[in-house]
Predict the structure.
Amino acid sequence: MDKLIIVGGAVLNGDIRISGAKNSALPILAATLLTGEKMRISNLPHLHDITTMIELLGCMGVESSIDEKMTVEIDNSNISSYCAPYDLVKTMRASVLVLGPLLARFGAAEVSFPGGCAIGSRPVDQHLRGLEMMGAEVDISGGYIKAKTNGRLKGAHIIMDIVTVGGTENLLMAAALADGETIIENAAREPEVTDLANCLVAMGSEITGIGSDRLVIQGKEELHGCEYRIMPDRIETGTYLVAAAATRGRIKLRDTDAKLLESVLQKLEECGATIEISENTIELDMKGKKPLAVTIKTAPYPAFPTDMQAQFTALNSVAEGTSMVTETVFENRLIQTHELNRMGAKITLEGNTAMVTGVERLKGAPVMASDLRASASLVIAGLVAEGETVIDRIYHIDRGYECIEEKLQQLGGSIRRVPS
Ligand code: EPU
């Protein structure tokens, strides 16, 4: 298992390119199952999870070729299996996103039941409830979700019990080939859901309310192939902005979109950053100042994203003042605080809130990555800590950050990867 070694103290300065969004690439790759025509998806990030999704499609009979610019051509005309096996699903929960498209196009799907993970129990009851409302028969046995339908799925009026990104995506894809109109109320409004909806429209879907919490889909008998470019990764964008703010640096991010992360930019301004945006760039400058502590509370979009919580906790650890960080989306997503405390942070937990008192300096230490965004927070902590930080289990980082050490080196960070 590789490790990252970071020597803290450098002030990040420079510009880098932001990759395509992992969390819209995954559902969009699943959505290619909805058509037998060729699809061409560009701006895919070069990440393990993307490779896993392509491998999953491959074991169903999907043929694909990827070029060096991460554009994939997909041919779904010869699907021979409707199964997402345990071995792949256990490595990536987002595999469950093939359930809706397989069921809608082929009337059958078998997907290994995704378990919980480090950040929470993560059930899929809302995915299954919606599919049942559309006429699917769902059975859970042998660790698999076995779903089938007699003929096409039927349009339905679905009021989601809670806001779920993956649940909304699965039902949106299923509804695209259902018979009649489907209305999804209390839908997730995350930009990744919008990116998927826009791709479905490019494939011939008729969807209104895109970007709102009420999606209305007129199901089609079939969809066609298309070319689609994945939007920029708002979480990667936010992570580098926070890293620059924590080191009191200056950074310019290219190929991104400020409209995707307004709540995050507001918090960065609150912490003292000067931010300038253009159509596809964001510049942040701390002008050498120490960041001010900011209180945050995660909630579904457009509120502050849970996927940026850990990074802000690291920022608050070295900020001026005290702050409260409250996690409301996942039950166990403050785990990084224990590792941050090992580096000298002053964080106490009260239920789902972390009380963070900024310290003058963190101290480098060996630490362990526990999930993707927690790992990003340890990288940020390592960049501002005195001395050397060694981060173990960095396969978590490789799931969501393309070439993280190259990008940080380009900004002047002292970071290298070593095989253990
Ligand atoms: N939930 C249920 N029942 C369901 C579905 C979800 O109770 O049927 C609960 C979850 O347990 C959680 C909450 O609802 O407490 C929100 O979960 P959601 O379904 O929105 O999350 P997800 O679709 O599993 C995606 C991202 C996550 C991101 C969340 C929230 C992908 C592949 N993953 O997960 O990204 O944190 O939305 O925005 O899109 C990450 O990138 O590090 C990551 C974890």
Remarks:
- Residues 234-246 form the longest helix (13 residues).
- Residues 23, 26, 94, 120, 122-127, 162, 164-167, 188, 190, 192, 306-307, 329-330, 372-373, 400 surround EPU (CB under 6 Å).
